[in-house]
Amino acid sequence: METTKEYSNGEVTIVWKAELCIHSAICAKGLPNVFKPKEKPWVNANGASSEEMINQVKKCPSGALSFYYNKKEKKDE
């Protein structure tokens, strides 16, 4: 059974798939205010800007980390 956890700051949600994680620690070294492997929950989605988190998630070598944008409720168009 696959373990998937989601962590959101309201604008973006980080998705972590535990089975894919190779524990390279690239996330924790790159954004230690967000990715804290010794804490629970280990992802603090309010520890950096959405853009910083997205850029760090994209560096994940295993694909264990991904993200998606949360739907916005405003209709400007």
How would you sum up this structure, described in words?
The chain is α+β, with helices and mostly antiparallel strands and 77 residues long. It is built from 2 helices and 3 strands; from the N terminus they run ββααβ. A hairpin with a 3-residue loop joins strand 1 and strand 2. The protein has a 3-stranded antiparallel beta sheet with strand order 1-2-3, with helices on one face. The protein has one domain (4-69): Alpha-Beta Plaits. The chain has helices spanning 26-30, 50-57, and strands spanning 4-8, 12-17, 65-69.
Task: Summarize the helices and strands and which ones pair or pack.
Blueprint: E1 4-8, E2 12-17, H1 26-30, H2 50-57, E3 65-69
Antiparallel strand pairs: 1-2, 2-3
Brief summary:
The chain is an alpha+beta fold and 77 residues long. 17% of the residues lie in helices and 21% in strands.
